[in-house]
User: Fold these one by one.
Assistant:
Number 1:
Amino acid sequence: MRIKDILRDILEFLMPRKCVMCGERLRGGESFICGHCFVHLPFTYYHLVEQSQLEKQFWALFPIERATSMFYHDGKNTRNIIYQIKYNGNPEVGRHMAYLYAEELEKCHYFDDIDMLIPLPLHWKRQLKRHYNQSHYICQGIHEKTGIPVEKGVVKRIKNNISQTHLNATQRLSNVEGIFQVTHPEKIKGKHVLLVDDVVTTGATLSSCAKELAKVPDVKVSILTLSVASRTAAPVLEEDNIDVSIYGIPLME
Ligand SMILES: [Zn+2]
């Protein structure tokens, strides 16, 4: 056994790594989430259907090219993933999840015409408080799998709008109007950009940013998030139409 392995085992014994969803001890080869929790994640499978409800939700706000999310954000355990990424100083969880999602999306050629990844920017005051932008980490995970470049400085958030949490749909739309500004239009002119965030709820904030990006000539915008807040955007899957497994799990398990 090499010294490195011995040290790793000692560290593992002293500070066992725990699953961010169930809190159980992780086994060798598992990262952040145990195998049991991972296979039971409520995956959306949006990328396997045409015109998913999520895309329809966005199209009501802005003509994006396509949109997808990895899992529904509707249980205590899945909410815990986003909590870790966003509020508990553990954005590496986001990078890891994004890597796994990119692995699946690549099989469907999801990234074939994407030129760059753009993390949804935080206002500088919010980023200063959090010390990081979780969307950067999610982009990083996709980049590590696909090699698509991440462009962090293309668009910025110029207004520190109040939290959307307690606003209704109409208030959410007006709360995010004009809060983004493209700072380097030359970098995205004629490109297909993938705008990336952790969660989509009504889609108001992401649509506001997409609208701003699309003011640059010949820009196409698609959207990817790790989770989606509502199951009302659930796609209808028909077993006969799909003969693939995802994340190594038979689709209609
Ligand atoms: Zn677990």
Number 2:
Amino acid sequence: MNKRDYYEILGVDKNATKDDIKKAYKKLALKFHPDRNKGDKDSEEKFKEVGEAYSVLSDDNKRSKYDRFGHEGVRGGSGAGGFDFSGFNFGDAESIFEQFFGGGFGGSSRRRSSSGLKKGTDIQISIKLTLEEIAGETTKKIKLNKYVKCSGCNGSGAKNISSKTKCSTCSGTGEIRTVQRSILGQFVNVSPCHHCDGTGEVILEKCPMCSGEGRVREDKTVSVAIPAGVSEGQYLTLSGVGNAGKRGGPSGDLIVIIHEKEHKYFHRDRENLYYDLQLSVPQAVLGTDIEVPVIEGKVKLKVPSGTQSGKKLLLKGKGLPVLNGYGNGDLIVRITIWIPCKLSKKTKDMFESLNELEELKPKSAEKGFFEKIKDKFFE
Ligand SMILES: [Zn+2]
Ligand SMILES: [Zn+2]
């Protein structure tokens, strides 16, 4: 499913102002409005198309994402071919397979272009990203060994112009039409001609570079721009970057599945990051200024005096960027208090004397901590 360019749909320039876009939209929306074109399917489709283009190009954030990543930059999982820009919807890897084999995009009949030429296959690859890479927009260079159009014959598969002739099986149309009769009536079945691979031409003398296939394998390096904030299992579809089709058939897609490398310090929960910080007993009691890691380095965190174990301290905006929105998540610092197990005689004596102090006895335990929990569970 090749979607038309949004700018092209609205008939405006890539540098069009918001005003230009609005004007173009109004004009086209009026022209294709269902009230004016009752029952005309084509107008209805156009009306929808214009609306979708406008919803993206009129929104600065969506427009800039569209400019950078295109239609299918980041692809929705569920809508086969239907790209939901509003959500930058992602699918997970499993559903890709469903889509491949379950008749979603790609589907059961391999996609064919209107000429009947067979489309090349999709290529699927995985890339591993660090959280640092995910935090910003990254461009990854990916090496692929894939089919590309043969330069010797420009994809035709024939040695030269005169070394091909009209296919007699399909009379040069590239299609075979068969009339089928069933109890439901008669219908015409159109399928690509196998004799000529849907090209309408038979090769008399094959191109020596590709042995008549019209494509050759080559090592290619592809740059893939990855928006900030992606996560494990999401994928991007690069339309037309997959394998070239035989004898000039269009190329399949490149599907890039995102994997996330485990981080030394952080756990991730969507756009929020968690960091576990251990404090010594005196640090927790007295409070301290302590350095904690963040994605872009380190920051000083103020730990107030009397910080309890299990307390969460928030570093606002120090998480990851929100994939399809504005701003960043937070870094949540979870405090645990480190209890020493081995003590020197001197330290042990100090603790012994601390243990005498009335003010160090837990006050909250008066009613009985477990009693309270029991109350909660059985009320
Ligand atoms: Zn060739
Ligand atoms: Zn043919």
